[in-house]
Amino acid sequence: xxxxxxxxxxxxxxxxxxxxxxxxxxxxxxxxxxxxxxxxxxxxxxxxxxxxxxxxxxxxxxxxxxxxxxxxxxxxxxxxxxxxxxxxxxxxxxxxxxxxxxxxxxxxxxxxxxxxxxxxxxxxxxxxxxxxxxxxxxxxxxxxxxxxxxxxxxxxxxxxxxxxxxxxxxxxxxxxxxxxxxxxxxxxxxxxxxxxxxxxxxxxxxxxxxxxxxxxxxxxxxxxxxxxxxxxxxxxxxxxxxxxxxxxxxxxxxxxxxxxxxxxxxxxxxxxxxxxxxxxxxxxxxxxxxxxxxxxxxxxxxxxxxxxxxxxxxxxxxxxxxxxxxxxxxxxxxxxxxxxxxxxxxxxxxxxxxxxxxxxxxxxxxxxxxxxxxxxxxxxxx
Length: 382
Fold this sequence. Notes:
35% of the residues lie in helices and 18% in strands.
């Protein structure tokens, strides 16, 4: 099993941080790289002309490696909402059709479609929260619902962000293909831990940011665009999205045709090399450990917490339906007042999400953290 990597992070021994699903801490090496990058900006005449481009492609390669993609199919974007807007600009949702989303899913894969539904003449159908926690079965049932309008698109997260229930994305992808429906996957809560391989999953779009599980900064995210959609128009018009619009040219607008890959969807001002290098370092570190090793360690930690809470009266989803790196804890008699605040005061940091608490460890957590977490929760609910 992968050893605890706490030594790579600036996390005091008395802090048990279980909130990677909200924001992953930066590794020490990334913090030092950021300091150097800021200093580099103070003397820009020393920056080589190729430096920004080199950093852009380094980050693109690192992101592609995490999802087994060709770097040519990956675009630099600032956020998941940007990814969904890009997809909505590229694909046409037929009037009279439906778009599937998840009940209480994060806002990004939902609001773009609810905002477009009335003018676009399509409906947005929510897959309701299943009583048995089996989101995969609920999604498959919604895809094949008898008498439903034709299905155009499923825009869903790779797991339910608030309660940590796993979704079999391969089964969903297969069911959507049978319906000739598009698949947009928000993989925010899984890239780096679950092994997404776009070569076999073959989504139409897949997006993830860097500030959670891949230990990078805010403002950096990546969008995989299947080759079949790379002829679409981006939502920003940039010189780097065109074949030859360059200040170095004798003719500035030498060739305004779009580049023939996902780079056309790169955001404007992508060459912010400070956060770019930070993002690359986090993704490269995660790749060096490998998703299998990370998943094994985190499943061990969340399993140990679940075992420690057995018999306390809390509600845990069945182990077979839980994602390995997020443990959601419910309280049948109601959330104990001030629970999150009490845990924070004890230096045990979790998140409160839709009536439950979400415990999300990463490779910097160890058995001592787990035991402190269990003890603190038991004390609060006693």
